[in-house]
Amino acid sequence: MAAAVALESRGVAVTLLEARRALGGRASSFEDGETGALLDNCQHVLLGCCTNLLDLYQRMGVGDNIRFERAVHFLDERGTLHNLAGTNWLPAPLHLAPAMLGFGALSLRHRLAINRAMLAMLRLGKAGREQLENVAFGEWLKQHKQPQRVVQRFYDPVLVGALNEQTNDASAKYAIQVFQDAMLANRDGYIVGLPACPLEDLYKHIPCKDVRCSTRVAEVIFNAGLVQGVKLTDGSIIAADAVVLAANHHAVQRWVPDEIKSRDLRFAGLAAFESVPILGVHLWFDRPVMQLSHAALLEGPLQWLFRKDAVGSMLHGVISASRDWVDVPKPVAMEQFERQVRELFPSARDAKLLRGVIVIEKRATFSPKPGVDQLRPQQGPPPGGAANLFLAGDYTRTGWPATMEGAVRSGYLAAEALCESLNLAADGRIVQPDLPVEWPARVLARRRINQLR
């Protein structure tokens, strides 16, 4: 969608082909077979630092459908609420200092340990975190003397959902990026954005003239090393001057013939990606049980809960990096989820669970483990590659982990590369800049650079 919208804005005639009945892919909705209502595959959250995703929403005219909150709600195992709410009158990273001082989910000693780690992250800057791409974040945490309880009650709730990987196993580069971009650089970076409608409704009026849903591609047609177009499953052929493959990397491997793969370096590492599942559960109770819009849960099994209706009787729970839940029988899993909700909310203890639906996306994202950047391809063709074939997808080289923001950046980068190949007149970059780094953060990062020099 991002590639199509960006290219249309540059005057390129785009035909957007979508295999499913509606746009959105993994960040979309499905029709509930019992009620006919639209249910999201899984809850998706954006942050203020997601500048390109927000730009796409504005281009599609749906920015007003995102509800923003300055408080991140945490619930401990007893259901006690702990808020992390930054002030909008202090620049970053000072804006979160008052909230961290009063964050009762952790002891003062643990909060001071977090403060030391945040300062170290800030001083690393972007250049410093790039050097940690092959280092596990667990190793970095040990080097900076972060207690295990801090990992469980602070880093895990933030990072497992953001990266879809276990905190200790993720690349330190991407783990530190989450904190740098969301919490340390700009006071608006951490603000939580939640869609106020089903995800599918966000994409109904995409500004692209030729959108064809329920249209499956059978083959990408090549001739003399260049793409000629695509063949659909109904046998029809759509010719094209260039093709952007925006499907997941599994489909890309099937569509691109071995002869093209052998001389286009972008395809060399695709088979080595590790896929990580995400579990989502929809819960309907016979009365309101949750008034908060969202909650990060300090004890499992569910890691996050979201209120999905106005009164709080419909909830959605998420478990990221849910490898251990793929083969658990759904009735067994549902019993554990129901018990957790009842333990968290007094109003749920006498409520009746009317219904539950579990959805597991087995190939939700790639794992951002150390070394993954060596596998991620660029969007545009390398020398000797298929010159009019472009890639878009969160697995490509975006500088971000597998998120909606990363997906949008990949589409914008693919559009930029395609425009350059067609010698279209430049009208500024399509990719939007990050939020500006506010002066305290700049000063602290500069001190680190001077020390390195």
Describe the structure.
Helix 2 (51-59) packs across helix 12 (404-421) and helix 5 (137-143) packs across helix 7 (172-184). Residues 449-453 have low confidence and may be disordered. Strands 7-6-15-16-17-14-18 form a seven-stranded mixed sheet. Strands 4-8-5 form a three-stranded antiparallel sheet, with no helix packed on it. It contains 13 helices and 19 strands. Among the domains are: 2-23 and 206-273 and 369-421, FAD/NAD(P)-binding domain (3-Layer(bba) Sandwich); 87-189 and 436-452. The protein is α+β, with helices and mostly antiparallel strands and 453 residues long.
Topology:
Blueprint: H1 2-9, E1 15-17, E2 29-31, E3 38-40, E4 46-47, H2 51-59, E5 66-69, E6 71-75, E7 81-85, H3 97-101, H4 108-130, H5 137-143, H6 148-163, H7 172-184, E8 192-195, H8 199-202, E9 210-212, E10 217-223, E11 226-232, E12 237-239, E13 243-245, H9 249-255, H10 258-261, E14 275-285, E15 294-297, E16 304-307, E17 314-320, H11 330-344, E18 353-366, E19 389-391, H12 404-421, H13 439-452
Parallel strand pairs: 1-9, 6-15, 13-19
Antiparallel strand pairs: 2-3, 4-8, 5-8, 6-7, 10-11, 11-12, 14-17, 14-18, 15-16, 16-17
Spans with pLDDT under 50 lasting ≥5 residues? 449-453
Residue-averaged pLDDT: 95
Question: What is the rounded distance between the termini?
Answer: 43 Å
| Coarse structural class | alpha+beta
Q: What is the tally of helical segments? A: 13
Instruction: Report Rg.
Output: 22 Å
Tell me the name of the CATH homologous superfamily of the domain at 2-23 and 206-273 and 369-421.
FAD/NAD(P)-binding domain
At CATH level 2, the architecture of the domain at 2-23 and 206-273 and 369-421 is: 3-Layer(bba) Sandwich
Widest sheet, order of strands? 7-6-15-16-17-14-18
